[in-house]
C-alpha cells in the first residue's frame, strides 16, 4: 500500500515537473512525453544506427586498426557523417545536458552491443581519460559517463585503468613529428589495474582516425596487459 502511494506520488511529481519544466527532444525539439528521455519515439527510432551487433564478420570500423595494432573487435552505435542527429547528440554530450545524455547513450550502446557474440567475453570497461583541464571546465569526463551507462546494461565494472601522462601544452608551436610523439605519449596503464581481467573494452565518444583509441590500446599492451582489447564508441565516421 505504502509503495503504491509512493508510486502515485512519484508519478504525480514527475508530471508536475514536466508541467513546470517541459523537456524537448534534442533532435526535432518537440516537447517530450513524460515517459521519454532526450528523444521522442520517432527521433530515437530514426537515429543512424550502424547495426554492427548484427554483423558476425568484421566491419569497416575494425579495418581502421588493421596494420596498426591488434584489436579484437570494434563497436559503434551510430554513424557520424551521414547524420546531423549524431552530431547533435555528441554536441549535447559535450556542452548541454551532458551527463544524463552520455549515460543514456551508454545504456543504448550496451543494449545493442550485448546482442553480439563478438563482445560476449568482455569483463571490464575502461574509459578514455580526459585532459584534467578539460574535465575541470566541463565538470565530468564524458567517456567515463558513457562507460557507466554501458556498464549498467552489460554488467561489467568500469575501471579507470588509464591516465594521461603529459600535458600537451603549446602543441601548435611543435612540428608534426613532435606533435605525433606528444600524442603517442599521452596514456599509461596504472600498475595492476587490469590484473583480474581478460577482455578489455575501451570506451570513447567518437571514432574518426582512431588515433586516440590506438594510443589508449597501446598503453594497455605496453603496461603488460596480456588479454584482448576491444573498442566501443557512440559514433563512427564512415
Ligand atoms: Zn524528436
TrEMBL record:
Domain Phosphoribosyltransferase, which positions? 145-224
What InterPro entries does this protein's entry cite? ComF/GntX_DNA_util-trans (IPR051910), PRTase-like (IPR029057), PRTase_dom (IPR000836)
**CDD domains in UniProt:** PRTases_typeI (cd06223)
Any stretches that span the bilayer, and where are they?
Answer: none
- Note the PANTHER family from the entry: DNA UTILIZATION PROTEIN YHGH
Family statement drawn from the similarity comment of this UniProt entry: Belongs to the ComF/GntX family.
Report what the protein is called.
Answer: ComF family protein
Whose protein is this, by species?
A: Brumimicrobium aurantiacum
- Organism placement in taxonomy: Bacteria, Pseudomonadati, Bacteroidota, Flavobacteriia, Flavobacteriales
Amino acid at each position: 500500500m505504502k509503495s503504491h502511494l509512493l508510486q502515485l506520488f512519484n508519478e504525480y511529481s514527475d508530471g508536475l515537473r514536466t508541467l513546470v519544466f517541459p523537456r524537448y527532444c534534442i533532435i526535432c525539439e518537440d516537447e517530450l512525453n513524460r515517459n521519454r528521455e532526450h528523444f521522442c519515439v520517432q527521433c530515437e527510432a530514426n537515429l543512424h544506427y550502424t547495426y554492427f551487433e548484427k554483423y558476425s564478420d568484421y566491419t569497416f570500423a575494425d579495418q581502421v586498426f588493421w596494420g596498426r595494432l591488434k584489436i579484437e573487435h570494434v563497436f559503434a552505435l551510430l554513424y557520424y557523417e551521414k547524420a546531423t542527429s549524431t552530431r547533435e547528440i555528441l554536441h549535447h554530450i559535450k556542452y548541454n545536458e551532458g551527463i544524463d545524455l552520455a549515460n543514456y547513450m551508454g545504456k543504448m550502446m550496451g543494449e545493442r552491443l550485448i546482442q553480439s557474440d563478438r563482445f560476449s567475453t568482455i569483463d571490464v570497461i575502461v574509459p578514455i581519460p580526459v585532459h584534467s583541464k578539460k574535465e575541470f571546465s566541463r565538470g565530468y569526463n564524458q567517456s567515463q559517463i558513457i562507460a557507466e551507462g554501458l556498464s549498467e546494461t552489460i554488467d561489467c565494472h568500469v575501471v579507470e585503468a588509464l591516465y594521461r601522462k603529459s600535458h600537451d601544452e603549446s602543441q601548435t608551436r611543435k612540428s608534426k613529428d613532435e606533435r605525433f610523439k606528444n600524442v603517442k605519449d599521452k596514456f599509461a596503464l596504472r600498475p595492476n589495474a587490469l590484473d583480474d581481467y581478460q577482455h578489455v573494452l575501451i570506451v570513447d565518444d567518437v571514432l574518426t582516425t582512431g588515433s586516440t583509441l590506438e594510443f589508449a590500446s597501446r598503453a594497455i599492451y605496453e603496461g603488460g596487459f596480456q588479454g584482448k582489447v576491444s573498442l566501443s564508441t557512440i559514433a563512427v565516421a564512415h
